[in-house]
Amino acid sequence: MKFPSSEFDNAVALLCHGTITNEASAELHELLRTDAEARDEYLWRVEVHGELASGRLDFGHASNFEPDGFGWESTATLVPDASSKRRRSYPAPPVVVAMLALVTVCGGLWMWHESQTASVETGLPAKALAVATIAELHDCRWMDPAAEVSSGDAVRVAQRIELSSGIAEVLFNTGARLKIVGPTIIEPRTDNSVFLTLGEVHLDAGTPESKGFTVVTPTSKFVDISTAFTARVSPDGLSRLKVSEGEVDVVLEGVERSPRLRAGETLYVEPGERQVMTRIEEGDGTDAFHFPTIQSPSHEDLADQALGHASVRVVRGQLNFKPGRGTSGPPDVLIDGAGQSHQDAPGESAFFQDHTSGGLLMDLGSVVAISRINSYSWHQHETNESHRHRARQRFTLYGYSGDQLPDLTRPPRESGWTRIARVNSDRFFEVTTPLDRPAQQASSITAAQGEIGQFRYLLWEVSGNTFFGELDVFGSPHATQETP
Questions:
Q1: How far is Cα 140 from Cα 201, in angstroms, rounded to an integer?
Q2: In which domain, by residue range, is 50 found?
Q3: Cα(176)–Cα(192) distance, integer angstroms
Q4: What tens digit of pLDDT does each residue of 55-108 get?
C-alpha cells in the first residue's frame, strides 16, 4: 500500500466503517508505521469521522444566513425533503444525536437535511430554492444507508450534506462547480455560497454568474474572483485556502482590508479571536533567501542576537551534534540574522537528530507585543536532487508571557502555554513526491488585526530534523505584561 493512493483512501474508509479486512488492516498498519505523512492524513480523517459521529457538530439543525454578518445562527429544525428518494423519515433532532452516539467512532456517512422555514433572503419556502444539482458521484457513502442519491438530484438551500467518503460533485445554477471530498460537512446558503463546517471542497467558478462565489468557514470567508480554489477546515476550526487560478479575497471579521491571494498562494487561518494567519512560500534557492511576499532573514528583528536581548536553547530532544562533517550548528545560528550560505550547510543550521523531534525555546528577555514570526529552512543534498526532506517545516508554535517558565516536561497546552499556530509545509505544498518539496522554505505567522499576542517566551515543538537557518520575531518591545 502506498500514500497517496486510492487504496489508502479505501482502506481508511473501510476501517472507519468497521468493514476492513485483516489483510488490508495489516497493510495500512505497516504504511502508518513507516510514513509520517500518511499518519498525518490518517489521523485527520479519523478525527473528522469522529466528529461526524459524535453529535458535537449540532446535527439535525439548520442555520439561518445573516447576509450582512459573519456567520450563521442556528434557529430552525430540519425535516427531510419529501421529494427526495428516501425510504424512511428522520426522528427529531435529539433522537438524531442519540442515534449518532450509537454509531462507531467513524460511523458518519452522508445526511441530507432541509429547512421547512422561509428563506431569509427571499421569503419563499426553502423547498422551492433548488440552487444546484448533483453532477457526479464517485464511491460515496451516506449517513442513511437507505437513502438513494443520484446524479441530477436537486440540492436546495439549507440542505446539509454530510459525506464520509468518496467524492460528490455539485453544479450550482450559477455555473460554479463544487467538488466535495469526504469526509466533509457542507451546507448551501444561496445559489452562490456555502458554509463549510469541516472537510475539503474544490471550487471552479469560471462563469460570469459564479463570480463572487463564497465559501464560509468557522474562521473566515473565501470570496472568489472568477477563479478556482481549494478550502479545507479541520475539526477544531483551522481553515486552509489554496488558490489554483485567479484571485481570492480572504474576508476576516473586523478587518477592513481583506488579504487577497493569487494563483499558487496558500493561507491558513487559526481559530480564535486573534485570527492568526500562516503563509508558507518557496524561496529562490539562493543565499539571498528571496520569497514572493515573505521578508528575507533579518538583522532588524527583536530576536537578533546583536541586540543582546534574546536567547534560544533546546529544551527537548538533542541537536545532531557529531564528530566531523554533517554536525548541527548551535542554537544561536537561529538568531544571527542570516540564513544558510548554501543548500547543504549543516553547521549553519540547527537540526535535531535523525528520526526524532524536539523543542526550541526562545526567551525574548521581556514581554513583547508580537506582530510577526518568520522561520526559514534550506536543504538539498549536493548530489541527490530529491533529497530535500530536511527542508520541510513541521512544528507547533506556543507563547508564554510570564517571567517564570512553567514545567517544560508537561505538554504545553496543559501548563499555561498559548498555542499560536501550526505549520506543516508538506501539507501546505501538497507534497506527494520528493521533488514536490521546495528545498528552500519560509513560513510567516501574523494576525488579522496586527498583534499575535504579548509573550516573553516562544516554544517551537518541532517534528523531524529540519535544517532551520533563522527564526525572526517582529513587534514592539514595550508591551504591557499580561497575566498568563
A1: 15
A2: 6-54
A3: 8
A4: 444 433 333 333 223 232 222 222 233 333 333 333 333 333 333 332 333 333
